[in-house]
Write a structure and sequence with these properties.
36% helix; 3 domains; Nucleotidyltransferase, domain 5; 23% strand; 356 residues; 10 helices; alpha/beta; 5-stranded mixed beta sheet
Length: 356
């Protein structure tokens, strides 16, 4: 285990800290940077100058300042240079956002996909990413983050399983993309990316997110930190109804056994939906208690039909707890996963910053 940190590494850590302060503040003075980071004036100035020279930040006059004397300058992120790419690789289609370090989406891409197996799926991923990268090389692509369905080992950058691709197993997506494009890559479970996007806009830090399609994906945050771990929150085959409906896994009463029929052939099955509501309400309540969550987000393709079940689901859920204990929000997923992937890429790029 490494027991010390060198001067160069410390400088890079401080550069990341300063850049994060500027990102979070929008526009900020040198004095404010020094006060927030605790860096000395000389140390802060050295780091700011490095960030200027590498095009990460720009300086502009504070037009709101009044009085006589020198007009103070404010520092902000350079929104014309340095971008990241967020990818959402979904079995039904791919999406991408190109985002600058301010969190602004510069361009959106999407593509319907089809594949027969692992090798074809890999080629589709490389081709889709290859459509985007060449157009932004001059702006300096700092990182790529990928939101993936199925089981993911984010720490190792491995896609363990991908829906409807039976020979897809333990695929080193990070390594493959890095070798192809020469850009740092992060791989995340898609519900984690969706929760990341929600955390950006919500005041609550203890949240649960359930992506409800033909199966269920889950993400959780505690004190604003997303809980991560290979297979840690794979909950599709948790028992919601002891001795209930048979599930494809061989057990009975899994939450997936009630969820999957509700979107039979991609359309709402109203009879199956009614059978789902109570098991889902119980499942939501149990997970809320486990993670002490104050907000529960329901998203995914089932939300297209929310008007058919929202009121009844909430009535059943609030039989088990008071409304003051947890807020439930039903959100159509639209671009949540790809937005969260791009935000992950921004944070990862800032953390990886190295300036000589």
């Amino acid at each position: 285990m490494k027991k010390y940190i060198g001067l160069e590494e410390m400088s890079n850590v401080n550069c990341s800290s300063v850049l994060n302060v500027i990102r979070n503040c929008g526009s900020v003075s040198r004095r404010q940077i020094s006060d927030i980071t605790g860096l000395s004036w000389g140390g802060m100035t050295k780091i700011v100058n490095k960030l200027f020279s590498h095009g990460y930040i720009v300086e502009e006059k504070d037009t709101s300042a009044s009085g006589v004397g020198r007009t103070p300058a404010l520092i902000r992120i350079n929104d014309k240079k340095n971008v990241v790419i967020g990818l959402d690789l979904n079995r039904e289609g791919f999406a991408a956002h190109v985002m600058n370090l301010c969190g602004e989406v510069l361009e959106r891409f999407s593509e319907e996909v089809s594949f027969q197996g692992k090798e074809e799926l890999l080629q589709v991923i490389l081709r889709f990413t290859g459509r985007i990268v060449p157009g932004y090389k001059e702006k300096n692509i700092l990182s790529i983050a990928v939101a993936m369905q199925g089981a993911v080992d984010a720490e190792k950058g491995i896609s363990v399983k991908f829906p409807h691709c039976p020979d897809w197993e333990n695929v080193p997506v990070r390594e493959i993309l890095q070798q192809e494009f020469g850009i740092p890559v992060f791989v995340e479970h898609d519900p984690d990316c969706m929760l990341h996007a929600m955390l950006k806009n919500e005041e609550c830090e203890n949240m649960l997110l359930f992506r409800l399609d033909r199966s269920i994906g889950m993400a959780a945050s505690v004190n604003g930190e997303i809980i991560r771990g290979n297979g840690l929150l794979e909950v599709a085959h948790c028992i919601a109804v002891p001795g209930g409906k048979p599930c494809r896994c061989g057990k009975k009463g899994c939450i997936e056994a009630y969820l999957a029929p509700s979107l039979e052939s991609g359309r709402l099955n109203e009879e199956a939906l009614q059978e789902l509501l109570d098991p889902l309400a119980v499942f939501m309540y149990n997970m809320m208690r486990v993670f002490h969550s104050e907000t529960i987000i329901l998203t995914g393709k089932l939300m297209k039909y929310r008007t058919a079940f929202e009121k009844e689901l909430l009535n059943r859920f609030y039989q088990y707890c008071e409304k003051s204990e947890a807020r439930v929000k039903l959100v159509e997923e639209t671009e949540l996963a790809v937005e969260g992937a791009a935000l992950t890429a921004v944070e990862g790029a800032v953390d990886l910053i190295q300036i000589s």
